[in-house]
Amino acid sequence: MRVSAVTLVPIFLVVVVVVSALWVYQDASAHEERGAPVYFSAGTIEISSPTVWSVGCLVLWVVFLPLYVTCRRAAG
Predict the structure, then answer these.
(1) Could you read off the pLDDT of 26-69 as tens digits, one per residue?
(2) Domain total for the chain?
């Protein structure tokens, strides 16, 4: 049985999203342990927990990953 590229693309995208969410969790945890959490605030929405960053990347990757990377730079 041959696997076509059309079948592999969604699998590849899921792997990319999951791996990047795991990286975000690990990186945000490391920042939090150093006392410089990655933080975002807009109105009443505040994000600083590694778990929230990671789940956000899993659910809405196209928004949360660039937002995390931008806020990560500000956190130092």
Answers:
(1) 999 999 999 999 999 999 999 999 999 999 999 999 999 999 99
(2) 1
- Provide CB contacts within 8 A for 72, sequence distance 6+: 27, 28, 31, 38
Cβ–Cβ under 8 Å, residues 20 and 54: no
Distances (CA, A) of 15 to 2, 26, 53, 55, 65: 20, 17, 17, 15, 14
Alpha carbons 48 and 18: distance in angstroms, whole number? 20
Which residue range forms the structural domain that includes residue 10? 5-75
pTM for this entry: 0.87
CA distance 38 to 46: 11
